[in-house]
Specification:
Length: 125
């Protein structure tokens, strides 16, 4: 199971890469493995300001549909346009081309609540 050390994680299985005051967010290798083959990603929150814990979209796999949750308060700046035509990028490259959204954080103190790679590994063990 790939759990990159440089990323932060949520208990809902999203990964977070901080780039200044912006965050890039996707689902973890563990999550995509549990979901199975991803067939559709629906994210219609671009331009919206959402709160930590709000649903920013859904991910549909052959056997289930799961909500995607905001790891911190912020504005959704960008949705990965590649996922519309190739949602399977979530399976093949969850930490790279399979990213979901980019947000501008409005409450950076919430980032302290995110899990380290070590803590996330313990969660999924």
């Amino acid at each position: 199971m790939n759990v990159p050390d440089e990323l932060k994680y949520t208990t809902e299985h999203e990964w977070i890469r901080q780039e200044g005051d912006e965050l890039v967010i996707g689902v973890t290798d563990f999550a995509q493995g549990e979901l199975g083959d991803v067939v559709f990603v629906e994210i219609e929150t671009a331009g919206e300001t959402l709160s930590k814990g709000d649903t920013f979209g859904t991910i549909e796999a052959v056997k289930t549909v799961s909500d995607l949750y905001m790891p911190a308060d912020g504005e959704v700046l960008e949705v990965n346009p590649s996922l519309e035509d190739t949602p399977e990028l979530v399976n093949s490259d969850p930490f790279g081309d399979g990213w979901m959204i980019r947000i501008k954080v409005s409450n950076s103190a919430q980032l302290d609540d995110l899990l380290s790679a070590e803590a996330y590994r313990e969660l999924i063990a």
